[in-house]
Amino acid sequence: MFWLDLLVIVVVAGISAAYSRYYLHMLQLESYQLDGYQRWLNKNRDKLVGATLNLGIWTTLGEVVLNLFLNMVIGETAARVTSTLLALAAFGIIAGELTVRLYQVPAKKPFVLTRRMKRLYAALIVLTILGASLLAWIGVPVFLLFVAVPYLTYLAGLVMQPIERRINDGFLREAREKLEARSDLIKIGITGSYGKTSTKFILQAILQEKFDVLATPSSFNTPMGLTRVIREKLEDHHQVFLAEMGARHVGDIQELCDLVHPGYGVLTSVGPQHLETFGTIENVAHTKYELIENLPDDGVAFFAADGDWCDRLFAETKIEKYRAGLGSGYLSMYAENITVGPHGSSFTLCDAEGGRVRANTKLLGRHNIANIVLSAMVARRLGLSLNEIARGIGRAKPVEHRLQLIEGAGGVTVIDDAFNANPVGAKAALDVLHDFPGRHIIVTPGMVEQGEQEEEINRRFGMQVADSADIAIFVGNKRSKPMVDGALEKGMARDKVLVAATLSEATTMIGRLCVPGDVVLFENDLPDNYSES
Q: Hey, what domains does the chain have and what are their CATH numbers?
């Protein structure tokens, strides 16, 4: 019965394609990187693949058993039609329940049907139809196609790679040509394991005292992110372009430099970030240094003084270079007489020539003063006076979700540091929390993408939490274990160390626990592709 076979192919392929939306969402959250999607799939294989496997197998077995039984009762043809239709109905109902279960927790970053995603979805639909047809042709039960949904998503991404690369190459070429036509444009690349987004916006605020500045918004720091900004936002009146440059693999900064060709490079930090893809801190350092290596002979390099990797890379640099940081006269720009408070900081900004100016900022934490001083050094080299720099520092605003101070309900103060996801930044956030009066509460899922060191990094983070917080709410039943161990090892009382399965559950806990005067730090908020639920 051709019509029945065709119906099965269409229904199973359609339901599989609809169910695959979740997997396409995860691929999108991994920035369409197939290696990242594969790692996510490997981590969640038992939970996700098990569900598709069970549905595919049990639907197939159910259809076979029902068909055999009905064949003895109502005849071969009627039995096949009836068992197939009932199996299709059961398949659809159970697949729908599985889909609802996947999305029972609202997405933090929603699925976006971009042009690229539409192309990818179309390719996936074609693959599901071809897969269902192939199974039917070789005599394998078509319901087993559902088992392959997570991998069909990967295959669709793989098939579309050459097409997307060609499309992206066209956009990149257009952006590159637009930049090359602006020989007058001051192009500044900013990279680092942490602090680059904050430094970018601080530098923008300072340079706007003298220049018309375009900075990449939010965390736009990939080739296509920068390309979009250049194509859509860069205008003739802009005098300075600030390009944040992110990296998850060796060679990523090189690719960004090939697009932007910056004349100035700013290195904010080198630390244990994305070790899952970099492997070692040495690879992180070498990748970040690609920015400095790509500066022209008359380019200028700026380094944060960190007493570690940045200082070592500074020593290797042969072109014009400057180093800036906190509290030492050997720097080209530094801060002294620092006063840090719960609502901002003040300090004296000093340069190597003896210039001094008092500066005030609404930004929280000593680490932000370090970012400010580094930005001030760049501005000084570009011709701004210390007074202009101080005015710009005063205008710098907290970056959303990066130690953003929020007055919560019921007299509770909230420190939103949800976009911070590295050990150094997390420690800085705890220092900020410690400076506030009142009872201190932290909500955090800890660190991810730290490779083999992840468990130890989270254990140490738990110990740091014990030093700064009165109550800790760790998010994630599995991921929280090393943080709990660290906090208890450091002496935190067991009844003050709480575990929530989800951020929503943690928020409910806060509602029960908090009293007026409490300070709650939200430290890191993992995207949906790291959810344990």
A: 2-165 (no CATH), 182-395 (3.40.1190.10), 404-530 (3.90.190.20)
> In the structure, what pLDDT confidence band is assigned to residue 141 with cuts at 50, 70 and 90?
confident
**Contact, 80 vs 60, CB < 8 A?**
no
Torsion, CA 511, CA 513, CA 518, CA 519, rounded to 10: -70
Residue 326, both tokens:
């906190």
How far from each other are the two terminal CA atoms of the chain, in whole angstroms?
Answer: 43
pTM of the predicted structure, to 2 decimals = 0.82
Q: Model confidence at 107, in pLDDT bands (50, 70, 90)?
A: low
Q: How far is CA 517 from the centre of its chain?
A: 32
Residue identified by tokens 């039943």 is: 477
* Nearest by Cα to 146 from 9, 6, 7: 9
* Cβ neighbours around 221 below 10 Å, total: 21
Q: What average pLDDT does range 190-202 have in this prediction?
A: 93
Q: To 10 degrees, the CA torsion angle through 303, 304, 310, 312?
A: 70
Tens of pLDDT, residue by residue over 276-288, are 778 888 999 999 9
Contact 314, 330 (CB under 8 A): no
Token pair, residue 59, equals 């639907």
Q: Which pLDDT does position 307 carry in this prediction? A: 85
**Res. 247 pLDDT band, cuts 50 70 90:** confident
Block residue for tokens 């501005």: 379
Q: In the 8-state DSSP scheme, what is residue 343? A: T
Q: What is the edge-to-edge ordering of all strands in the sheet holding 497-500?
A: 404-407, 413-417, 519-523, 440-444, 471-475, 497-500
Pairwise CA distance, residues 203 & 356, whole Å: 19
**Packing angle, helices 21-29 and 2-19, rounded to 10:** 30
Listed as own residue / partner, the contacts of 399-402 with beta carbons closer than 8 Å and 24 or more positions apart are: 399/197, 399/198, 399/201, 401/525, 402/197, 402/198
Lowest mean pLDDT among 236-245, 248-257, 451-460: 451-460
pLDDT at 18: 87
Provide CB contacts within 8 A for 242, sequence distance 6+.
Answer: 188, 190, 200, 203, 204, 207, 213, 214, 215, 216
The share of the chain scoring above pLDDT 90, in percent, equals: 53
258 pLDDT more than 80: yes
Residue 456 CA to residue 498 CA, distance in Å, equals 20
Name the nearest CA neighbour of 147 among 51, 79, 82. 51
SS (HEC) of 61-107? HHHHHHHHHHHHHHCHHHHHHHHHHHHHHHHHHHHHHHHHHHCCCCC
